[in-house]
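Entry:
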Amino acid sequence: MSEQEEELEDDPTIVKDYQDLETVVRSFQDDVVLKTSLDIGRNKVEDAFCKGEFRLNGEKLWKKSRMVKVGDTLDLLIGEDKEAGTETVMQILPKKSV
């Protein structure tokens, strides 16, 4: 766990509005990690990719099957409020490889 994560966990004023899940994936390819971690079908992954809804470290994924490393951040855009300039994402943070 990073120092920043520890600080956030220790701060009682921060509301945790997310759930931590542990998942084992057979490959660190971005599409496999997304499909397995978010428990969504291959077609949904394909549709979201074509719509530009996946990001790796904040950058839109333009090429599928990129390798993900520990420390990377994968996001799936699930909502956007253009007026407020906010996005709602499902986020994956790979923690370790075996």
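The mean pLDDT is 79.
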